[in-house]
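Contributing: when you submit paired examples, paste them exactly as shown. First protein:
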Amino acid sequence: MRVLPFVLLLLVSPFLRAEEFGVLVYGATPAGIAASLAAAADGEKVLLVDANSWVGGMMTNGLTHTDFRTFEGLTGAFLEVSTRVEAHYRATFGADSPQVKECFRGTQAESKVNRAVLEKMLAEQPQITVWLGRSLEAVKCSTDGHTRAVEIAVFADPTGGHFPVTAHMFIDATYEGDLMAGAEVPYRIGREAGEQYAESLAPDEADTQLQGYNFRLAMTRVPANRVMPKAPKGYEREEFTGVLPLLESAKITRLFGTGPPALFKAQAPSLPNGKFDINDVSHGPVRLSLPGENDDWPDGGAGRAARIVGTLPPFSRTGLRQSRERVFDEHLLWNVGLLYFLQNDDAVPAKLRDEAREWGWCKDEFVENGHLPEQLYVREARRMAGAYVFTEKDTDPAPGDARSVFQPDAIAMGDYGPNCHGTRHEGSRFGGKHSGEFYKSVAPYQIPYGVLVPPDVENLLVPVAASSSHVGFCALRLEPIWMSLGQASGHAAHQAIVDKVPVQAIAVERLQKRLHGLGAATIYVSDVPPGDPDFVAVQWWGTAGGLHGLAPAPDEAGQRGKNISGQYYEAFPRHGAGLDKVLDPKIAAAWLKLAAKFQLPEAKLPAADGKVTRGDWIRAAWSLQQLP
C-alpha cells in the first residue's frame, strides 16, 4: 500500500524526520474525533490526521439525520455532541425557537453546526494536533516473529510533501480501513455465506458484493438560502431519459418524500432552518445508491477474488486514489445529474419539474465545495478480521430473555439493528430493483472489545472498519455506534500505553469502568440514563450480567416502544433496571451467585425481605465492589 518502497520513501529527503505522538488517529470521522478526545482526556499527546478538508466525516457531509432508535440508546461521546448541538441552537435562536425543537435534542443538526461543534471540541483539547488534507502513503511495521507493531506511518499532502509519524498507539478510524490495510492486517470485503456464521440474512454463497453508496445531499426549499444545481461534469441528457416512462405512467407521483414512490428521500423530521438530509429511498423505483458501481472503492479491486485479502501483494496508492475518484465521480454524476435532469428537461412533466425546482443546495453549506458534500457515503468497505467477529447472532435475543445475547466484554452498545440498502442492482436503473437489501428489528445489543482488536498487531485499534461479518457490520455501521467504539478505542490506547501491554491484553474491566464513569453505556438500560446517580453502578451490574433474565422475551422479537416520529421510538420495553421495584427472592438468589464471582461477602448484601429494592441491592454491591 505505497507508491515507493518504504525505505526509499524515507530516503527521499535527508531532512525527513518522524514526528512523535502518544496516539495517532487516522480518520477525522466522528469515531476518530471521539478516539482523539478520549485519548487526550487521559493525557496522551494525540495527532488526528485526515485526507479531507474538514473534520467530521459524514456528520459534516450531509448525513445529519442520525440513525438511532431511541434517545435512551444515546450515551458517551455522541450524547455529548448532541447536547452541545442543542445548546448551540438554544443560545443562537432562543430556548423556545423552532430550531431547538427541530434539532430533535441535538441529534438532527445542519452539517455546518455539527462541524462547528466538533471543531470546538477538538480545539478545547491542547493535547490534540489536527492535520487535514494529508493522506496515508505508507506504513512500516516491526515484528519479533510472533506479534507485530506499527512503527511509522507516512502521510502526503497534495504538493508532494511527506510527513512521517511515530506513535505508541495507532487508531484507524477511516471508513475504509486504510491504515489497517497498510499494516497488512487481514480484512474482508463482501458477504459471507449464511452457513459460515449461521446468519439468516446472509446469502447462500459468499461473494464480493458491497452495500451501495450515495451522497447525502443537504437541500432546502427556502428561496433566500437556495442555490440551484448545475449540470455535473460529464452530464449527458440521454443517461437520464429512462426515468420519463416512470413519470408518465404515474408510477412516480412525487420526487421528494419519505419513501416510495419518491426518488429522493427527504428524511423526516426536517432539520433546523428549513433544511433536509436527502438520502436513497429504500425499495424505491429509482435509487440514488449504486451497488456494484462501488466495488473498486475499498482497495481498488485488489482483493476482489479473495475472502481475506490482507496478505495480498501491496498495491499502489496512486491506483487506489484513481479508483476512488472514478467511483466518486460516477456517483456524483448520477445523484446530481438525475436532479438536474428533473429540474431542467422539458420532457419532464411540468408538475414534477416544478416540484423539483422548489429544491436546491443550501447556500450556507459546503461553501468551499460548491455547496456539495466533500465525501461520498461509504456504507461499507473493508472489515477487519479481528479478535472477535461481530455477526447477526450478536444481535439475536438471549434465550427466553427480552435482552440480546450477553457480552461480558462489552465496551459499547447499539439499538438500531442490521440494515442494508442493497448489494446489487437487477435490471435498469429506472424501475429495476436492488438485491441484498434487508432491515431487521432487534433488541438493543452489546458490542465486545474484540471487534476493535487485530489478530497480531499489538498497537493498533480499528473502531470503524471493525471486525464483523457483512450482516454484523450492517448493525455497527452507524455514527452513534462508531463514536462509542472510537471513544472506547481512545481510552483503550491510553490504557495499553500506561500498562505497557498489547491492545490484545488490556484489562477490559478497567476500560468498562472508565467508560461508565464518563457516561458511556455498555448495556442498554432504559430507566437509568447517563447523569443519573445510579448510572455507573447499574452499568457495572448490567455488564456483569445482572440485568439479563429480569424480563421475559416479548411476543415479537425486537419489540419497540411507541413511535415518536419516523424511525424514532420511545424506549425499548422490558429493558429497565426497575430500581424502585421490591427485590424478588428469585432474582436475589441469582444475584448472589453472580456476586460470588466478584468475591462480594453475602453477609454484607441486603436480603430480599420484602422491603429491599433492586436499587438498594445494586448500590450495596457496587459499594462493596469499590472497597480495596
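Second protein:
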Amino acid sequence: WWACCPFHEEKTPSFHADDRRGRYHCFGCKASGDIFKFVMESEGLAFPEAVERLAGEAGVVLPKPTAEMAEREEERARLLRLMEVAAAFFEAELQAPGGRAARRYLEGRGLSRATMARFRMGYAPQGRAALKAHLAESGFSGEEMARAGMVIAGPDIAVSYDRFRNRVIFPITDARGRVIAFGGRALDPDQPAKYLNSPETPLFHKGHVLFNAAGARQAAFEQDMLVAVEGYMDVVALVEAGIAPVVAPLGTALTERQMALMWRMAPEPVLCFDGDEAGRKAAARAIDTALPALAPGHSLRIAFLPDGLDPDDLVRQEGPQAMEAVIARARPLADVLWEREWRNGDWTTPERRAALEQRLRALTGLIRDPGVRRHYERDMRERLFQALRAAMPRGRGDRPARRSGEAMGGRRQARPAPAGGGPVPSRPVRRARGSASLKSSALVAGASAQPPAREALLIMVLLNHPWLIDAHCEDIADLAFSSRAMARLRDAILEGHAMAETLDRSALRAHLEAKGLAKAIRLARRAIAHKSDRFVDPAAAPEDVEVGWRHVLALHRGMRGLERELEAAERAWRAEASAEAFERLKALRLKWLDAAQHGPDRDPAEPAEDAAAQGLARTDAEIEAGAGAEDEADTPRTPA
C-alpha cells in the first residue's frame, strides 16, 4: 500500500506499507519499522501501550495477569469509571443555571463553546457534598472517592467533603485521553489557592503527566513542533488561537519524565517562559533537568515572552501572530545554557576564567549520552575561547590574540620541544598539506567515480543475495555512504524490495537497470578489492552470507565513526592550532589509515607489515617536518 507519509509533509506518496511482511518504509524521510513502532511513533505511545492498543484492535487476548495484578487492574478500571462520571457531572453543572458565573468567566477569557467542549471544561458547585452525593448514587464508595482524590477524607475529618468547590474545572487526561485527574480555577477572588490540582492517586502522578498531551499529539506529529507553556489557560488560549500542539506541566517544574513524553511527540519542543527574572530562573531549572536526558536528535528550544505577559494575555492583546513570532525566535538549549553561565559573572581574572571553565565541564558532564556530551564539551570550549578572545585586550599592532593561550591572557602557548632536544622553532606551526594517500581516500575526496571498496562490497552482497533485504531492511536504510552512486543503488534496491512481493537476483538487476543504474553496478563490481570475500558469490551458502554481511556491516559502521572523529579533530585543529589538537589529529589519522587497510577492529599493538602501513611513517614525517616550517603569507591554512 502507498500513501503520503504521516511523518513528513509531501504531496506525492512515498510511504510504503507492506501488510504481508508487516513492515513500512518511507523513501522520502527514511522512516521504517513494524506495526508497533508505527503506533509508538505516530501516537506517542510507549511499547506496552502500543501492544495493549493493537491487541485490543486485533482481538488478541494478552497473557492473564496474576491475582494481585488482576486486583490492581480492577481497582484502576473502577477509578477510571469514577473519574469519567465526575467529568460528566462537572460538564453538566457548567451548562446548568448554577454554572452561569463560570460560563461568564470563560467567555470573558475569549473562549468559544466549541473550545469549552473540546477540553470538556466544567464547573464544581459551591456545596460541600454535591459531587460526593452524585458519585454515591452512581455506585461508588466513599473509600473509592478518596482514593481517586475527589473528596477530602481522613481520620481527623468526621465527614468527608468535595475537594473542588466553586471552581472552573479542567479535566486532566492520560496519553489515551482517559480522565485521570482534575485542575480547578477558583472563581472566588478571596480563595487562597487560585489553582488546585487533584492529589497523587493510583491514576495520577503529576510529574508524569502533561496537560493536553492526548489533544496535542496528532498536531505535534503533523507540524513537527510542540510548545510547552505554564498553565491550563495558556494551553486553552493558544488552541483557541489556532496553535494546536501545546501542552503544560501541572503546577510544578518540568520533570525528566515529562520531557520524555514531549520527545515522543517532537524532537525539539519549545519551552515558553516569562521574560522576567523569575522566567529566566525557571528556564535555568528546566535546562538543568534536561541536560542528563539529552540524546541524539532530542533537545529543547527556549522562548522568552515579553515582560509581564503570559501566552493567554499575548494572544488576546496582539493576536496569534505575536505568539507565533515568539515561538519562531526560540533559541537552542546550548545558546541559553551558555548565556546563563557567561552573564552571571566577571571573568577578568585567570582564576575566574578557570572557575567558569570548570563549571562548564561539570554541566556538560551531566549529559549521559557520550556522543551528545562530546559535542557539548566541544561547543562550550569554542564559545569560551571566542568570548574570552573578544573580551581580552588586543595585542601588538591592535590584532586580536590568535591562540588559546593568548586568549586566556597569558603568553603564546609553547610547542613541545623536538624529541632529540635542541631549541624550539620560533616560527609558527604550519599545517602540513595532506599526503597522497589521504587525499585519495573517500573521506577527503568525497563521492568519486570509484566508490570505497567496503561500500561496493555491501551493495554487491545485496545484489547477489536479495533475501538479505527482508531481514536487514532497517540496517540498509540507515547505511551512510560517501559514494553517491552506492547511495543511489541502495535507495533503488529498497524501492524494488518494497514494490515486489518476491525479489530474486534477476528481477532486482532488471529493476536497477530500468532505473539507469547499470553503470553504478559495474562500478561496484570493479571496486571490490578482496577476492577472498567468497560470501559475495551468488553460490555462497546462506549461513556464510549472513556471517559475512554482519561482519562487513560492522566494519563499515566502525569506519564511518572513525571518519566522523577525524573530521571533528580537523575542525578542532583549525580552531585551536594547539599541540594537543595536533597530536590528536595525528593519532586519529594513523588510526584511520590503519583501519582503512586492516579494518577498525584490528589490535593497534599488532605490527602493520604491508606497504600501505609502512607508508604511514612517511606521512607522519610530513606532519612533523612541517611543524617548523613557515607558510607563505598568502597561503591558506589547510588541515593536515
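If you have annotations for the second protein, write them as plain sentences, like these:
The radius of gyration is 32 Å.
Confidence is low (pLDDT under 50) at residues 395-448, 600-640.
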